[in-house]
Structure prediction request, 303 residues.
Amino acid sequence: MKTTIGVRKCGMVLVLFAVVSSHAWQNDPSKPAGRKSEEAELIDGGFAFANRAGTELLVTDQDAPENNAAVKTFSKAVCPGNQVFDVKFVAHQSRGKQDSGRATSHNSTNVAGSVFHIVDGKVKADDACLLAPETYIKDKRLLPMKLTNAPVKLDQPVSARRLSALRCDAKTNGSLPRQQGRAPKDCWQLAQIGEDVRLLAVLYEPHQKDLLAGLVLAAGGKHFVYEMPGQADPISAWREGDGGKFDPTALVPLFALYNDGDGSWDIGISWAGEEGANLSAYRSTGASALKKVVSGYVYWYPE
Prediction:
């Protein structure tokens, strides 16, 4: 069974499993600077990437060992284009002798992990999907999500024209609250969700060498914020090799889920860096914040 709303392609995703409490940036060569620790994961779930045919999804053994019973409870996949698929556990595969260490469809038969088959339908090769038990989907609705601008390859320069097309309008800018006492300095709209919900990237005024950006969900007159601190550095401020600048085009929305039961939102995001990308699902809270509930990292640096 499949539910489809819109279509888009996203990058390659390697799971960092989140069944037990963990810290998202451990062992991450492209971790954002300035964030010393991460909140505990909240749900049983993990990110997987698709094989070349787009019919199977692989959850790696990194932090998701073969004997972890929770892995086999995964029965749903939330995929790019706001699609939900039924999935079925196939088998566990061992690491191949020719494993390149990359989380790509070309290397999927060599990566150690648990393989899931998409029951009806398929995705694009290397698509990122969040796998979770059926209980995760309960009471949640996928809403239409229109990206403000299509993602570009990491080796393509970010033009002023492209950034200008993403910038928030005057009304949106005027409604943004201060964060940690800092006024918003710049704002870019990443996506429109439904009729009146917007997903934003915001840069705030610096405090000496302490930098601050945020992922902001503007919904129902409220602003839910996930803070992204950085440290002023000409080479790496937020991400390794970012040139000391915050790049909103590196943030690519993956999916948007609304919970009819408690009114919360789950938002999937890919944050690309020099060698790979962080994958996260964030949930809105009553404290006007976005809390990370699942996280992952993909390494794709060219061989």
Summary: The mean pLDDT is 83.
